[in-house]
Structure formats: structure tokens, C-alpha cells
Amino acid sequence: MSQLNIKQAITKGETSLGIEFGSTRIKAVLIANNFETIASGSYEWENKLVDGFWTYNLEDIISGLQAAYSEMKQEVEKKYEVTLQTIGSIGFSAMMHGYMAFDENDQLLVPFRTWRNATTGAAAKELTDLFQFNIPERWSIAHLYQAILNEEEHVPRIRFITTLAGFIHFLLTDHKTIGIGDASGIFPIDESTKDYNESMMRQFDQLTSAKGYPWKLQDILPQVYVSGEEAGKLTAAGAKILDKSENLQPGIPLCPAEGDAGTGMVATNSVRKRTGNVSVGTSVFAMIVLENDLSELHPEIDMVTTPNGSPVGMVHANNCSSDINAWMGLFREFSQAMGYKADTEKLFSVMFNKALEADPDGGGLLSYGYFSGENITGLEQGRPLFVRTPESNFNLANFMRTHLFTAFGALKIGMDILTKKENVEIDSILAHGGLFKTPLVGQKMVAAALNVPVSVTSTAGEGGAWGMAILASYMINKDTDESLEDFLDQKVFKDVVAEEVHPDEVDVKGFEIFIERYKKGLAIEQAAVDNLA
């Protein structure tokens, strides 16, 4: 679009805004009706371990939202000489799962408990056994039931629980709603009704009935919406919260709030059956849209949904890029100490490409980038660990390949269950996340881990905030009865070229050797957890 056309689109409100709360960054992306990014803004933040729980405080949540929006708004003003006053549609997304509980006055009862907490093992196991449906420790219902088991004093006062995305949506619209994808990380979803599973809700109420709480589960969960539906409008109070300059006008329609898994599926055009995506960040997860139900319950596989309600097998590992980023910081310090100012992008490019020169299995080296507990491998806490034997081939290339392999180690264990035990067929995997900014390397590592062709599109770098903006655009721009799959295929991704990398047989065999070493070495990681306080 020309500068003039973009300016006119902004003035007329022919735009869509997506804001996503990631684990390390809040990002706002404004797109035009042709789905190109007009402007963006971001805010860096970090979770903190407070009283045994990983959390972000309310002040940071709101100030980060405002900062990301303000930076995006300033870019609009600078590039197009327009003050942003209206937007065609808005959508919010965030890290899935976690626990935000509110009282009758909509006051937060306990600090936000994020997906990263591995403190709900007893609750998750009991609910999994009760429902005969995998309830991961991250899920909101596991957090709620663990609070019940712990007899936490806030539980009787609960009147509403939601996710981070659901909270932001409520804050700005006064609607206690949630998108079905994010809802599927709160409580199991019934595919036929596109709503919470009623029989399981009754089971939960029966389980807790002796407690005498003044609420039933259905009363305190957000209402479920699917993609394309309107889930409220921006209130006057919400507009003032979002835009501190108070230029933004209320009344803008909002689409259902979604989780980062759903926006990742949209950003990679992976909502059709037999397609999937891998999203890489602080955590890593793969989402495979299933043709058939799984034959049995697998604790390593989360059953969630696409934003339009199709069943998805999700493999989620809590740890991915944090340890790599820490090592890159160390190498940056070294280069500075040697008198070289290393450009971050170049540093990552050089170091990642060294991995392509490595022995196929990483030369016998071993690493665990566990900053937190890892449910797939059964560790409640994490200790970043690097191990080698005297016989290992210890060089920079093998060091880098080992750290890239281990970033996908837990993910591979879960994905092997889908592909080798359940015989799930996958036509294509699309990948997105910062690790793929360096061309080819990340794709080759994932292709080796999953033994499936892996593609990266030019839009993948836009990430979840762009995917959320697409969902907001879908709500106001879809044709009558146009499915999300068709909207993505025929409009959003019609002319997008995907760069596909096929698995290399040598790399695949190398990863298989590495993963056996990775499994055997878990006892070393557990010992580090037990002995390194």
C-alpha cells in the first residue's frame, strides 16, 4: 500500500490491532486490511519468583500494555503524520494457562501465577485420573484445584478466574469472555459444543462439593467464544487505560482474547488438519491439528484447540531459548573484553552457523537448559547444566549444536509419542520465533528433531501479535460463512512464500543418538536439582 493509502486507512479506522503478552516482551502490531504491518511497539519485561511462584505484577502488566501501545502509536504519528484515534478491531493474546483469581469486586486475590509454575503436580494428577483426560500442571483448573488442596484462604472468595489474556480483555471491555483456544488451557473443551466439557465440570463440582464453596465451576469461568465472533467493545475506561494520551475513542469491537498457542497457529497458517507449527521462545511448543482422537491418554500431550475449535495435540516444554541466550550473553562479554563490539544479530548468526559444522550428534556433549521445571521429563525444578566426558569432542561447533539440540530435547520426547506411538501424520510444520531469524540453522535442527519438513514464512517473524491482529481482522473482514482456514489460505497467505527445509538423514540419526544420551543423563539433571540449592 502507498503512504497515502495507509494514511487514509488509519484515519478511517480500516486497521486491526493485535497485542500479545509474551514471556519476555509485550508487542503491539497494527495491520492494514491487506495484513501488512503498519506500525509496532514493544515493552521488555521478565517474570519474577515471588514467594515460590513465578509471576508478573499488575503494575507491570498495565504499564507494559500502555508502553507497547504508545510506542506503536508514536510510530504511526512519525511515519504517517496521523494521530491514532480509532481502529477497526482489536484483539489481545498472552501466554496460555496460569491463574488469575478475582473477588466480587474484581480485585486480584493472589499474585498472577504463570504457566511456568510447576507447583500443581498433585492437583494435575488427581484431575487427570478423575477426568481420564490429561490435565497439565500449567492449566488454570490445576492451579485452582491445587489452591483447594492447599486450603488457601482466598478460594471461598473467588468469583472469577481467567488467564492473562482474559484479564486484559475484561479490563478493557468489562466482558468476562475468552477465545476457545485459550479456554482449552483453562479446562477441557467439548469439540461438539465448542464449550467447556459439561460432564467434567459436574465431576469437578462433585469433587469439591464437601468444601461448601459459594460458587460452582461454571459460575467462575469466562464465557467461551470462537474466532470470528465479537466478544465486546472497548469501553471509555478501557480506552483511557490503553491510550494514556486519551486520543483513542471507545466503541471499537474486540475479538475473543486468545492464547499464544492460537496466535502462533494463525501466524503460521497452521489451523487445517494434518498441519502443525512449532513456536520457539522461552518455552517451546508444537501444535498438531488432529484428524482423529488419540488412542489413549498421554501425560506429555495436551489436548487443546485451534481458535475456531478444532482439536489439537500440543507438546509443550517449559524450557527452550533461555540458556542459549545466557550463553550468547557470555560470548558477548568475551568479545567486549577482547576489544570487539559484537553486533547481536551477527553474534547469533555466527554462533548458530557453527552448529552446521558439528558432529551429527554433537560430539558426545550434553546440556540441559532447564531454568524451570520440565513436565515432560518429570523435573519439578531446573538447573541449567552442561556436561561432557573426557572423550567428548569438545569444540565450538559441537557446543552450539548441543545447545540447539537440547532446546528441542523435551519437545522431541513428546512429539515421538504423537508420531511413533499414535501414528499421527503431519503434512507440514511451520516454525516461528526469534531462533529462526538466523536462516536455515534453526529449521535444520527442528527438522532433524521431528523428521518432518519445516518451513518458515516471511510473516513468521511477525509472531503472535501479528497473528492476533489477523484474528481481529478476520472478525470484521470475513465473508459470510467464510472459515478461518479459508480466510488464511485465500487472503492472508495467498502470496506468501514459505522456505522449506527437509530433514537431513545424517542430522536425523545424529539427533536420535543425542536424544538417547539426553534421556540417560536426566539422572544427572535431577541430582543437580537435589544438590544445588
What does this structure look like?
A seven-stranded mixed sheet has the order 16-17-15-14-20-21-22, sandwiched between helices. Strands 3-2-1-6-13 form a five-stranded mixed sheet. 51% of the residues are buried. It starts with a helix and ends with a helix. The radius of gyration is 23 Å and the shape is globular. α10 crosses α16 (463-477). The model has no long low-confidence stretch (mean pLDDT 94). The protein contains 19 helices and 22 strands. The protein is α/β, with parallel strands linked by helices and 533 residues long.
Strand content: 15-25%
Report the end-to-end length measured between terminal Cα atoms. Answer: 56 Å
Q: What's the mean pLDDT score?
A: 94
Q: Give the total of beta strands.
A: 22
SS summary, helix count: 19
Radius of gyration: 23 Å
Strand order across the largest sheet: 16-17-15-14-20-21-22
- Global outline: globular
- Helicity, as a percent range: 25-40%
Question: Strand pairing plus helix content: what structural class?
Answer: alpha/beta
Report the biggest beta sheet as strand number plus sense, adding barrel if it closes: 7 strands, mixed
Q: Which blocks of ≥5 consecutive residues have pLDDT under 50?
A: none
